[in-house]
Amino acid sequence: MSELIGEMDDIIKVLLIKLMESLEDKYEDYLKLVKSWFRMKDSRPQLEGELRSFLTPHQNHLHSQLLLRLLYKSADIQQIPSEPSKPKREHRNVHRFQEGFEPIDPTFYVVTERQEVNGEVPPFMVHERLLPDQSSTLARLMYSAWELGLEGSQPNVAEFLTVATQHFLKNIITAVITRKKGYKCSQNGFIHSLGTAMPNPWLRNVNKYRSEPFHSLKFDGRLNGMNGILKPAERPTREDLEHDAIFRLSASSAEEETGPISLYDLIITLQLYPSLVASNFVRVTNTERIYSRLCHPVIDD
């Protein structure tokens, strides 16, 4: 091993002499850069970048050979076995180890609160038991657009969806109430006066009160100079309204206690009027949910 180290020392000296002769005046600069690298002031990429600025390809080749020889020499020196020495006996202080150990109460790490998997995801309106407004709908649209990689959503889209949701729920609630209570219907089919008494259709004088009186459109004679102006419809007097209400109450049967609106009323209404929910998938899915809640109620319901 000593012979090998001697040979490698000679090779290192030869390479160093060749590099000195090739560098000439630049040797001092080269030596400063290498010393700063050995002292770990500069990194290897910094050293290579500085040397590449003034070294020729031949000088760079000598520099690489010199570094390789130095690395080989340092590796061989580390592999030389040192003189065997008597192993030192390790003294273990059992008392100090026991004093430094502190037992931990396992109940300290028990989870006491329920941890949600996706706590940052905005909750659905069905969980909050609130009707969606424009701001909440817009926030949900912005979050969905971010998930799908879109730019965003305009406020008028949220306003349109809010109005559509309100009309959709209004139609369902109206259908449920009209199946339980009486109502009036105008000539164009508009439903109003929910909860009024329903006259018995088998009575003699009831047929003429089953619909609102029809008033034909008339032109106002005082406005002959302006074509196309229609006369406003005549409003019924207070006496006529009172007479009509008394007649309906007297001709109607006694009302029975219907109770509050339940899931049974909702499921029957959806079966009678399937056009309330245009999507067959949405209607079937929510029908199954209603049946499951009727058969298997939970605490959240």
TrEMBL record:
Alphabetical list of InterPro entries matching this protein: Hfi1/Tada1 (IPR024738)
Lineage top rank: taxon: Eukaryota
GO biological process: regulation of transcription by RNA polymerase II
Any one GO MF annotation of this record: transcription coactivator activity
CDD domains: HFD_TADA1 (cd22934)
GO cellular-component term (any): nucleus
This protein's UniProt keywords: Nucleus, Transcription, Transcription regulation
Subcellular location: Nucleus
Main location, first listed in the record: nucleus
Keyword Heme attached: no
Family (UniProt): Belongs to the TADA1 family.
Name of the protein this chain belongs to: Transcriptional adapter 1-like protein
